[in-house]
Design brief:
Helices cover 27% and strands 28% of the residues. The chain is built from 7 helices and 12 strands. It has helices spanning 28-44, 63-77, 128-136, 145-148, 154-160, 174-185, 204-210, and strands at 2-4, 7-17, 48-58, 81-87, 94-103, 118-122, 166-169, 188-191, 216-221, 231-237, 244-246, 249-250. A 7-stranded mixed β-sheet has the order 7-9-6-10-8-11-12. Strands 1-2-5-3-4 form a 5-stranded mixed β-sheet, with helices on one face. Strand 3 (48-58), helix 2 and strand 4 (81-87) form a beta-alpha-beta unit.
C-alpha cells in the first residue's frame, strides 16, 4: 500500500509460468484472462477499486489470442492497460501483471486483524478449480471455467472492507491460507470441516488444500449481517499451540495444507 496525495494505492504483482500455473498448450486467451484475474483478486481482498494494470509479456505462439483474452478481461472489469513490456525468451513462457488499485476504505483490510470471537467466513465453494484442472488433464468431466477463467470478487471485497477484521483471497488452498491469516493475526482459526462448502463432497479434503479458487476468506464479528453470500466456517479462538485447527485437530504448516512455491 502507498499513500499518494489524498488516496491510498494498493499494488500487487503476480506471475504465471507455463507448466506450473497454466497447463502447456493452453489457449492464450485463457492465460491472459487468468493473469489479470488473479491480480484483481488480490485487489478484491483489500477492498480496492482497480485503477489499471502493467503487463509483462513473453512473446511467442498464440499472441493474437492472448490479445483477444486481454481485451476481454480488461473490458469486463473496466481496468485499463497502462503500459508494460514485451520480451523474447525460452521455451517455457511466463507472464506478469502489476495491478494498481485505489483503497475504498481505511484501514485497508489485511491478514493481521482477526479478533478472538470473530466468525470465519468464505464466499463460496472450494475445489471447483481442482475439478476443472482434472478434467483438462484426463480426469472426470467437469466445468473447467473456474480453473481457466477465475472471477475476482471485486464488488464483494469493496462492500466487505468496512466490516471485516481480516481478509485475503484463497489462492493456495483454504487450509494454507487460513493458517497464514491466523499466524499473521496471532490467533487460532478454529475451522469446522462440515461447514466448509466444497465442489465435490467425495474429495472434501483435497478441495480444502488444492487452491486456485480465489474466493474471499475473512473474519468479522459473528453477529453482524453480511452484505454478500458467505458461509461461516469457524470461529477465531485465542492463540494456542498454532494458528489453525480443523475439527479440533491442530494443523501445522508442514502438513501439506496447500500449494507452496518451493
Amino acid at each position: 500500500m502507498l499513500a499518494f496525495g489524498g488516496e491510498t494505492l494498493v499494488l500487487t504483482h503476480d506471475v504465471l509460468v507455463e507448466g506450473v500455473h497454466v497447463l502447456p498448450g493452453s489457449d492464450s486467451a485463457d492465460i491472459a484472462w487468468k493473469l489479470v484475474a488473479v491480480n484483481l483478486s488480490d485487489l478484491a481482498a483489500k477492498g480496492a477499486e482497480p485503477v489499471g494494470i502493467l503487463l509483462g509479456h513473453m512473446l511467442g505462439e498464440g499472441d493474437a489470442r492472448f490479445i483477444e483474452g486481454l481485451r476481454e478481461v480488461i473490458a469486463t472489469y473496466g481496468v485499463p492497460l497502462l503500459g508494460g513490456d514485451t520480451v523474447k525468451g525460452g521455451t517455457q513462457r511466463s507472464w506478469g501483471v502489476t495491478a494498481l488499485g485505489r483503497a475504498t476504505h481505511l484501514p485497508v483490510p489485511s491478514r493481521s486483524g482477526a479478533q478472538v470471537g470473530d466468525g470465519i467466513f468464505v464466499t463460496g465453494a472450494l475445489g471447483a478449480a481442482m475439478l476443472g484442472h482434472d478434467a483438462l488433464t484426463g480426469g472426470a468431466q467437469a466445468d473447467t471455467a473456474a480453473y481457466l477463467r477465475p472471477l475476482p470478487l471485486l464488488a464483494e471485497g469493496r462492500v466487505l472492507a468496512p466490516l471485516v477484521t481480516a481478509m485475503m483471497d484463497v489462492s493456495d488452498g483454504l487450509l494454507l491460507d487460513a493458517w497464514r491469516l491466523g499466524n499473521a493475526s496471532g490467533v487460532t482459526l478454529d475451522l469446522q470441516s462440515a461447514s466448509i462448502p466444497v465442489a465435490d463432497e467425495a474429495r472434501r479434503d483435497e478441495c480444502l488444500r488444492w487452491g486456485d479458487d480465489y474466493q474471499l476468506l475473512f473474519t468479522a464479528p459473528g453477529t453482524d449481517a453480511l452484505p454478500v453470500a458467505a458461509g461461516r466456517i469457524g470461529t477465531v479462538a485465542p492463540p494456542g499451540n498454532g494458528p489453525l485447527r480443523l475439527d479440533g485437530q491442530l494443523l501445522s504448516f508442514g502438513d501439506g495444507l496447500g500449494y507452496t512455491h518451493g
